[in-house]
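step: validate -> pass
step: tokenize input -> pass
step: predict -> running
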Amino acid sequence: MRRAGTTRAATGATDGVAAWFGRWPVRRHTVALTLWTVCWFVVTSRNGGVSWHYLRTGGRLLTGGGPGGGLAIYQNHPELQIGPVSFLTAALFEPFPPGVGERLAEAFMSGLGLYMLVVVGRTAADFYAGTGINHRRLQQRVLIAGLAFIPMWVEVSVRFAHLDDVLALFFTALAVRALVRGRPAAVGILLALAVDSKPWALSFLPLLLALPRAHWRRAACWLVALVAVAWLPFYVTHLGSAAAARFAIPNQPASALRWFGVADAVTPGWDRPAQALLGLALGTVAVLRGRWPAVVLLGADARIALDPSVYTYYSASVLLGTLLWDAVGQRRLVPWWSWIALLSLYGSALLVPSESAQGLIRLSFAAVSAAYVLLWPMKKRTRPRAGGRRAAATGSRRGAPAPIRGR
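step: predict -> pass
step: emit ->
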């Protein structure tokens, strides 16, 4: 009798612990990705913070003024190819001792990467709501893609500590979630914050076109207003700020740009506008073809195909693009494109000795992945169940745009 009572007590205690843990919104795949991130953080932080001094310098100049600072920062320091939102965020770590502030910033950026995986998972769940997609399969897909995403995210957030790229991608991921949930103002605001963090996020603006046409103006107004508020003060008060847009970097032998016959020693004058225009054009085509989850990947493809530099942290934008495509844009369990991107871009940088071959691999990945997401035949998504249609109709009657769902 005592043994039976003990067994029941132990079972009750176990159920109680399980129920307690069940109240917390933590999933096993999130725990696994957290541990994976910690491992990469520990390994990478030993040689991290390569570019953090740019953020610290810019943050001090923008917030503290001083010679060449304030609104004159871009005129006097065109090498700071970083948006004002990133400088303001970097300034939050300035009160700490330099080493401590850098480590806190790296931990903060790594945490944003983990949160982005949660955001993408929830975005996929919302997008496929009512289509019969198994939620556990979505979690498995995010887990497998996240295992490929984290190494490149730690590369940008810890090894190079590029807060500007981190924030641009973070705000873009939030914009995608707002898009799926049918919140046009939030889409415009978040895309503006992405551009205000790093100008190359302009390539992601075709996401606006994925909204219902009736809400384009609202989203665009928010976007234009916030971009103007962030950038115009610098250009109006100091006309020389335009020099930052013409700042050139070396055209490295491993760049894909070399395979286009561009042998200039530094960035050609046409290159940056071409990157933005190509990204915008490809993203617009994706939206018109009903493949808007590919917009981020296509914008990142345009960047690595035409950029004269080959820093490994550039690949973080590609991995966010493949993550969104693998989680939202297609329904296969195995997220092949995330792993193909990791092996092609990061693997070639580590294992392929020929710089010319590295450039060819980068260009091939950009071309093949862009062609696939734009041209490969895709299965049509099933229509939402009746509950999903009623919910969308109710949202429309209340004046809110219906969420974008799988169709």
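step: describe -> Residues 1-25, 382-399 have pLDDT under 50 and may be disordered.
step: cleanup -> pass
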